[in-house]
Structure formats: C-alpha cells, structure tokens
Amino acid sequence: MTGAGELELAIILPTLNERGNLAPLVDRISAALGNTGWEVLVVDDNSIDGTADEARALALEDRRVRVIQRIGRRGLASAAIEGFCATAAPYAAVMDADHQHDPALLPTMLAALRAGEADIAVASRFAEGASTANWDNPEREKLSGFANVLARRLTGVELSDPMSGYFMLPTALARALAPRLSGFGFKILLDLLASADRRLTIKEFPLDFAARRAGESKLDRAIAFDFLAGIYDKTFGRLIPTRFALFGTVGAAGVLVHMAVLSMVLFIFGEAFAVGQIAAVLSAMSFNFFLNNWLTYRDQRLKGAGAMLKGWIGFCLTCAVGGFANVAVATLLEMQGLVWFLAALAGILVGSVWNYALSSRFVWGRY
Ligand code: GDD
Ligand code: MN
User: Fold this and answer.
1) How far apart are CA 58 and CA 105, in angstroms?
2) Ligand 1 mean position to 135 CA, how many Å?
3) Which helix (H) or strand (E) holds 68?
4) How many CB atoms lie within 10 A of CB 318?
C-alpha cells in the first residue's frame, strides 16, 4: 500500500458487470489523486461477470479498494446511498465505473468543496466547455426544456445536467439526507437536492464525457420515465405511493384491454359471453403483467423465458385472489345497501391493493 495522507475522499463506484473496467479505473483514480487520501468503494449488485471478485483481487493488492457485494438488491441510487453510509471519508464522489467520467476532475471538485465554494460539486456534460463529442449516444440525454424546468422547480437549483451521475459532496450531508431519499429510480443527485430543507449550492465542472470503455449501458431509453416517476414520488408520492399509482394506472389500462377483447369476441361469436369474459380476463391479466414488468418494476424486471413464465403464472394467481376479494367485498357492501357502483368501486380498490401487495412480494420481490 502506498503511503498517502489521511482518508479524505471516497469514490463510490456502483457496478453491474464492469469487471474489465475496474483495474484500469482504479489506476486512473490513483494517478489523478496523487497524495490525497482516497478509497474506492465498489458497490456491486452481485454481477454475474465476477466484478465483486475482481474488486476483491484489487483490494488484496491495495487496501484502499473496498467492496460491498449486495445480493437480492438492485439500483444505482441505492448503491450510492450504501456507499455514503459505508465510508469514514469526509467527502464522497459517485461516478460510473465504465470510464465515461474522467477521474482527472476529482481533485478540482474536492478543492472546491474544501474551499466551501458549494455544497455539491457536479460534473456536467452540458456546462460551458463540456463535450459529449466522444459519446456514442448523446441524444439520449438531451432532456427537454420541460424536464429541466421541472427539475429546477423541484430543487430550486439551476443545473445544466440534472441527470449527471458524477458528483461529489460531504458524506455527512449525504447521510443526513439519506433517510429522505426516495430510492425510486430517481436520479440520486436530483433526489439529494430535492430532499434538503435548504437550497443547496452547486458548482458545475464541465465534463468531457467519454464513450463507455467495455461492457454495455445498464440504463435504457425509458430514463425519461424514471425522471417523471421521481418527480411524482417527491410530490404526490407520500399520498399515493409511486409504485401503487403506476400499478393502478396499468390496471386501468387493463380494463380497456378487457373491454376490447370482450366486445371483439361478442362481435365475432355472438352470444358467447362466458367465453369472451374468459378470453378478456386472460388478455387483461397478461397485458397487465407485461406492462407492470416493463414499467412499474423496471428496476427489478423479470428477464428470460423461465422467469417470465413463472412471473406470469404467479401474477395470474395473485389476480385470482384479488378478484375473489374484489367480488366478496363488493357483494357484501351491495347487500348492506350501498349503491352498486360505489360497491363495485370499493371492490376494485380492495382487489387492487391486494394484487399490488401480493405481486410486489411474490412476483417481483425476491424474498
Ligand atoms: N450497483 C449497481 N446496481 N450499479 C449499477 C446498476 C445497479 O442496478 N445499474 C447501473 N449500475 C452501474 C453501472 O455498472 C455503471 O458503473 C454506473 O452504474 C452507470 O451505469 P451505466 O450503464 O454506465 O449508465 P449510462 O452510462 O447509460 O448512464 C449515464 O447517464 C445517466 C444519466 O442519464 C451515467 O452517467 C449515469 O451515471 C447517469 O445517471
Ligand atoms: Mn456509463
């Protein structure tokens, strides 16, 4: 272990299949930081390519490298929070492990924080002097002006790159905010800013955004969706939890599918109501399963034929129980003299809460 000053900066690297990128990145970080006391925290979500083992191998050579291997958990934002809480360093930076974020900015960002120039230092792809010339798909990030306005309203802070995944802040501040962070796919930086009681100050550093070195991106095009979901979470999320709102919206769309299939069968086969109803229920359930898997649970999406089939069966079973509860409650209330549509509504509500609770645990939950 090379002699370096006391621990000052933790570099948190959330990883999902970044094995080949780690060693060269640690070298680059080490070269950039020189005598500053640093540690690298690899927060790996049980990557199948052995990223955690690779990190441990590096740690055996250099104790400044540490590993947190998480099993049964997922998410870039929660990995960053894990890192904030697992270091004794007074400052922490979060960056991609794929070499898109240049470690050469670290000392400059740290100096700015130390000098009290801002609460948070943010590397921006879109600040004056930044460049995305080498990025393979810069289009993805061109957030609409609307999204930027929303971000500003929410945080009170002017940011050229509110989705940046490269920033630095005092760990005490991050830990103070941690209990309030939503953890729902919302970009962690925006979440930190929106969770603070006071308006945090920002200093932006133009970033020369590079192409990913090896492996592939884990964040897909629906990132704009994450952004909107995060904003909902911070505003109405306390009233009706984000996931439940999504689940309910998907369910409502399922009603449309149900009606469409039912009317089609009736139109084609005439009097076959029971057949139509069965076909409609199956179609609506499958539609709901796929849409929920794609949107509502995009952070823990089921993949592969086996997992999908198991999930689909589980979801249908869950819905059967929910449907039963729905009918039972509605019938009971109707018998008590409640108007039919209110009784039906109550049944739907109870059924959906039930479906939601069960499926989030048994279809998309691991434990
Ligand atoms: N532990 C963990 N868990 N790490 C993850 C997960 C996860 O579920 N998902 C992604 N990562 C890691 C990746 O391995 C990588 O080191 C980093 O988080 C960022 O993921 P990328 O796959 O490289 O994201 P990107 O380059 O497409 O997205 C860029 O733009 C985003 C804004 O839209 C990055 O700069 C992000 O940091 C940024 O938020
Ligand atoms: Mn990346």
Assistant:
1) 23
2) 14
3) strand 65-69
4) 22
Q: pLDDT tens across 263-281, in order? A: 898 888 887 788 888 888 8
Ligand nearest 163 Cα, by number? 1
**pTM for the whole thing?**
0.80
With a CB cutoff of 8 Å and minimum separation 6, the contacts of 256 are: none
Q: Which CATH architecture has domain 9-236?
A: Alpha-Beta Complex (3.90)
- State the pLDDT at residue 232: 83
Strand order in the sheet with 7-15: 65-69, 37-44, 7-15, 91-94, 167-170, 120-124, 202-206
Would you say the CB of residue 298 lies under 6 angstroms from ligand 1? no
Q: How far is the CA of 138 from the centre of ligand 2 (A)?
A: 12
Q: What is the pLDDT of residues 67-104, one digit of tens each?
A: 999 997 888 888 999 999 999 999 999 999 999 999 99
Cα separations (Å) of 237 from 51, 146, 203? 35, 21, 29
Domains of the chain, residue spans: 9-236, 242-362
> H/E element holding 249?
helix 242-269
Helix (H, G, I), strand (E, B) or coil at 42: strand
CB 39 within 8 A of CB 64: yes
Query: Could you read off the pLDDT of 16-43 as tens digits, one per residue?
Result: 999 999 999 999 999 999 999 999 999 9
Q: What is the mean pLDDT of residues 46-63?
A: 96
How many other C-beta atoms are found inside a 10 Å radius of the C-beta of residue 271?
Answer: 8
Cβ–Cβ < 8 Å for 207, 101:
yes
Higher pLDDT, 350 or 367: 350
Tell me the CA–centroid distance for residue 244 and ligand 2, in Å: 30
**How far out from the chain centre does Cα 173 lie?**
21
Phi/psi of residue 11, each to 5°? -105, 115
SS3 39: strand
